[in-house]
Structure formats: structure tokens, C-alpha cells
Predict the structure of ABC-type quaternary amine transporter.
Amino acid sequence: MNERPSDLQVKGVTASYGRSRVLHDVSFDVNEGELLAVLGPSGCGKTTLLRVIAGLHRAEAGLVSLGSRVVADGNGRHIAPERRHVGLVPQEGALFPHLSVAGNIAYGLGNSRMRRMDLKARASRREQVTALLDLVGLPGTGKARPAQLSGGQQQRVALARALAPSPALVLLDEPFSALDAGLRASLRADVRTLLYERKMTSILVTHDQDEALGMADRVAVLLDGRIAQIGTPEDVYHNPVSLEVGRFVGDSVVLDADPSAAPSGWVRTPIGFIPVLGTPSGRGKVLIRPEQVVFSSAAEPTGLTVTNVRFTGPSTLVTAATEDRKIWVRAHCAGDRQFTHGEEVSVDVTSSVPFFAD
Ligand SMILES: Nc1ncnc2c1ncn2[C@@H]1O[C@H](COP(=O)(O)OP(=O)(O)OP(=O)(O)O)[C@@H](O)[C@H]1O
């Protein structure tokens, strides 16, 4: 377990490259032992944010503190990266190709040379490397070169190297993005378990919604260098603060909605009445997730026919649309009921959806 106080505070951080501003007044906390995912599209500033926290990029304004230590502030304070006790796991290709796996991990333990160490220190270092290799599920691979390992194994070594000095904070910069789907899923699960068991305070940067929602205790949605929302995965998924966040965080359909023509707690939409969260007033839009939608065979004309049926494994994703295709809605259909192209369907929305005023 990590002994260093490790809650992170980021307050009002603004950062640029030359005259181009990338981060705008970014603030958030990460509690000790928590995994925060920073989720955002490519180019929104995720890597820059990690670089500011690690001390590799100087912010123009704002404060970064780890435990009780201020490691950067707007008044010129800037603790060097190697003195921040922060471990960084980059995207890929981060291992030294000329060093063995053990050599790469030992590098994370500090750069004092083995040759200059006494026997006891050498033995202790070997033990630590062996323990770290066991920890990341790669026992016995110490003598291999990175090129002899698979992409997933290399990322495990990079994680072991980052964990070697018992950092106060681990930063993971899209560490699974170069891996194929199966490997990505198993490595995500292993890394999550490992960080949880070691009570590591961590930030995972990703553009992958499933990864952020599935791995993190909380998710910070970063759009155009600004934190748009921070909350639990359930919160950002079901209660997005804006249409933009809602659309980015997961698959959705957005429809025009009018509360004035519906009973309280409902809105009228082109596909019928739908229950909404809160008490909307004025016209707006609703955001519906496919798993909130149920299709059934239309008992009377609805004007909605099935236009696409896609088997995804656990369920089938079915799309139905009006003839002009201007109004459409999608549902995850589980079970045996098969829908066919051109079939007319009626639509039920089974739980309350968020409403956004125009
Ligand atoms: N060294 C640099 N010099 C100038 N501009 C940069 C530099 N690094 C990044 N940028 C720009 O800053 C913006 C944010 O980049 P950053 O790498 O932080 O985004 P990101 O969200 O991590 O993107 P990705 O998911 O594609 O890695 C982008 O517009 C990028 O082109």
C-alpha cells in the first residue's frame, strides 16, 4: 500500500502551446485511492492535462497539489517531475528497447547503477523487480527484451515500471488504445483490480466511453479543454448536464420535445409521449439511450418502420424511422423476439430521460 498522502487537487489550471490555449480553468479533485477517468475526444487536451500534473508542461495559471504538497502554482512554483512522486504510463512504445524487462522496471526504482551497489542492495532490487513482475502477471519474463513481448505484455511492464517507486499518483495516458479488443478488455480488468487492491490514486485518460464508464469511480468529461461534467459513471451517462455531454458519453437519439402538450412529468415528441427527469418548461430536446427503448409490433399505424437490424452479440440493435427518415429511434432488443426490415413498430420509453431546454 502507498504511504504517501495522495489526494490530488487541480484548481483553475490554464495551459497553452505558444498562443494556442489548450486548457481553460480546469478544476477537479481526485480522492485518495480513487480512479478518475478523464474522458474526451481527440485533441481536447487530455495529454496536456496529464503533462501539467506530472510536471512535464508548465501551466500559465492554476494550482496542482498532491496531499499537502503544492507541486505547481501560478506564482512560479514548479516542482520537478522526478520529485512529484507521480508514475506515468504512456500510450505505447515507452519501454527502453535496449534494456531487458527487468532493467526497464529497475529503472523505475531509481537510476543508481547495479554495478555500484553492494550485494544486499542488488538482491533487494531483484526481489522488488520480481514482486512487480508477479504483480502485473508476468512472472519469469525479466530477462526478455520488450520486443519479445506482446503489446499487452509491454503495457504491463510499463505499468510495473510506473508503480516501482510507489508513486503517490499514477497517470495512465490511453494505455490500452493500441491493443486489440479482447486483450484490451482483459488488461483493463486486471489493471483496475491491481490499482484498487493497492489503493492507488489514479487518473486514466481515454477517448473510449466504455473504458471510462467501466473502469472509473468518477468520470470527468473534458470538451475543448474545459471540464464539462464530473460525476459517477451512472451520473454522467444518465444525467448529462448538456446534450453535448450526453451525446459524447454514449449512444443516444435526440428528439424535439414539448412539455406544454403533455401531462406533468412527460413531454410530447414525434414518437409519442415520453417520461422526463425534472420539471421541464418550454420547448426543448430529450436524449434517449437505446436500452431505454422497447419496440413491439404496431397494433395500429405508427409511421415507424424498422430500417436496420444489427446483431451485436449480447443484444440486437434495431433502428426504426419514419418514411422520410427524419425521425428515428434505436433500441437494444434482447431475447428471442426478432424484428425484420420494413416491419411497423410502436415505441415505448421505459424510464425517464433528460430534457434540455432550447
Ligand atoms: N507540443 C505541442 N505543441 C503545440 N501544440 C500541441 C502540442 N501538443 C499538443 N498540442 C495541441 O494541443 C491540443 C491538445 O492536445 P492533447 O495531446 O493534450 O490532446 P488529447 O486530448 O490528449 O488528444 P489525443 O486523444 O489525440 O491524444 C491539440 O490541438 C494538439 O494539436
Observations:
- The chain has two domains: 8-247, 251-357.
